[in-house]
């Protein structure tokens, strides 16, 4: 593999205690430098400081939205910080999301706009920047990759329900994008994967909403961000003779 230092770019970290943050921590332990892109400035800075204090190289890049121009600007800053003479973007995670759970007739134009921006405009812009960089990479001789791009999906990626018409529409689109990119760029030794996260994740937000210690302590009925991150590390390590496009993850007792 190239002597350049590998970089993981993560878009979407929430409060820092969910899938995005756990993935950043997991890849940092493997020696990756970390670029964090998200809307929450305080959460970004907190995670950046945590990673740096653990000995990792990490930088946060706050954005006002997931519009194309914001993503493009963030990547310009990422490339200025992690220059191509020393670093190489080798992994990327699009983990941004926005949930709307409402009866169809209650959904507003603003709901549709933010769902579209987060799941479609943002993911297209993120993928465009990442794949453009991956194409410049040498093939890693250990796994046959120029890089891996992972999208975080949900139950709504494959199944709509009574209050998920807006949310599912966005997640269906994200899944379709990931499948199309996997087929197009696999021939260039670029690995694209999609993860269906089918169940509740134990995050600071979900714990505060549920206020249910039994749920949080029972790993049979909820997902842990660290376990999801471990699956993403596994995807990144897969050799080219056996790549996964779609991985579905759920707790042992999840009804499906």
UniProtKB/TrEMBL annotation:
Coiled coil: none annotated. Pfam families: adh_short. This is NAD(P)-binding protein. It comes from Lentinula boryana.
């Amino acid at each position: 593999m190239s002597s350049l230092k590998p970089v993981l770019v993560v878009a979407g970290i929430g409060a820092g205690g969910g899938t995005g943050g756990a993935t950043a921590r997991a890849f940092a332990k493997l020696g990756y430098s970390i670029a964090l892109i998200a809307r929450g400035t305080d959460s970004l800075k907190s995670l950046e400081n945590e990673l740096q204090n653990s000995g990792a190289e990490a930088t946060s890049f706050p954005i006002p939205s997931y519009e194309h121009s914001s993503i493009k600007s963030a990547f310009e800053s990422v490339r200025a910080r992690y220059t191509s003479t020393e670093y190489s973007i080798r992994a990327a995670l699009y983990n941004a999301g926005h949930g709307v759970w409402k009866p169809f007739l209650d959904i507003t134009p603003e709901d549709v706009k933010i769902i579209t921006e987060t799941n479609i405009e943002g993911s297209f812009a993120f993928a465009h920047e990442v794949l453009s960089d991956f194409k410049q990479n040498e093939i890693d001789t250990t796994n046959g990759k120029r890089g891996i791009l992972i999208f975080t999906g949900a139950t709504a990626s494959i199944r709509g329900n009574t209050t998920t018409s807006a949310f599912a529409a966005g997640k269906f689109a994200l899944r379709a994008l990931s499948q199309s990119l996997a087929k197009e760029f696999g021939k260039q030794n670029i690995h694209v994967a999609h993860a269906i996260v089918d169940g509740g994740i134990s995050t600071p937000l979900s714990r505060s909403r549920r206020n249910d210690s039994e749920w949080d302590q029972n790993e049979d009925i909820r997902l842990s961000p660290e376990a999801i991150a471990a699956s993403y590390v596994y995807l990144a390590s897969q050799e080219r003779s056996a790549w996964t496009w779609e991985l579905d993850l759920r707790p042992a007792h999840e009804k499906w």
